[in-house]
Amino acid sequence: MIVLAIDPGTNLGWAMLLNGTIYSGVQRFNISRDESPGMRWLRFSSWLYEINKQAGGNIDVIYHERPHHRGGAATAVLEGFVSHLQTFAAQIGAEIKAVHSGTLKKFATGKGNAGKDEMIQAAISKFISPTLPVVIDDNHADALHLLSLAMAELGVK
């Protein structure tokens, strides 16, 4: 089973379990002032298909974080990422599950209102190894925790 976990946003955290190895990082989907806003979605869609290609075209399940919405431009961008992710999942036949940010924080730290630093520290404690020497930022930490939650819920070791 191949699981892809995504913390959606302009600085998108991701983690994937592939053949027993965790691959992860942060992918940035910034656009410059002279670019169409649609370039963000083209780059995101291309990246998703590349990740699926690297997984042999076999992504089974996609978990993504559903954070609290505060309104404004950031919410609109987040909804765009989720819409494109749902479309991608439908096109490749993958299951998709949204995990509330409070649920993820409670799973990772025992506190549903944990801050970014606490999430990063929990990720460092749980995931740092020779194959994963650093947790890049809070987006990366959230994606790693999402992958761990998915594995626990799906019974994947």
Walk me through this protein's architecture.
This protein has helices spanning 38-54, 72-92, 101-109, 116-127, 138-154; strands at residues 2-7, 11-18, 21-28, 59-66, 95-100. With 157 residues, it is an alpha/beta fold. The protein is globular, with a radius of gyration of 15 Å. Helix 2 (72-92) links the parallel strand 4 (59-66) and strand 5 (95-100). The protein has a five-stranded mixed sheet with strand order 3-2-1-4-5. It has one domain: Ribonuclease H-like superfamily/Ribonuclease H (Nucleotidyltransferase, domain 5), CATH 3.30.420. The chain is built from five helices and five strands; from the N terminus they run βββαβαβααα. Helix 4 (116-127) packs across helix 5 (138-154).
* CATH domain class: Alpha Beta
Per the principal axes of the C-alpha atoms, what is the gross shape?
A: globular
CATH structural architecture:
2-Layer Sandwich
Radius of gyration: 15 Å
How much helix is in the residues?
A: 40-55%
Q: Strand percentage, roughly?
A: 15-25%
Taking the sheet with the most strands, its summary is: 5 strands, mixed
Any chance you could write out the topology, listing elements then pairs?
Elements: E1 2-7, E2 11-18, E3 21-28, H1 38-54, E4 59-66, H2 72-92, E5 95-100, H3 101-109, H4 116-127, H5 138-154
Parallel strand pairs: 1-4, 4-5
Antiparallel strand pairs: 1-2, 2-3
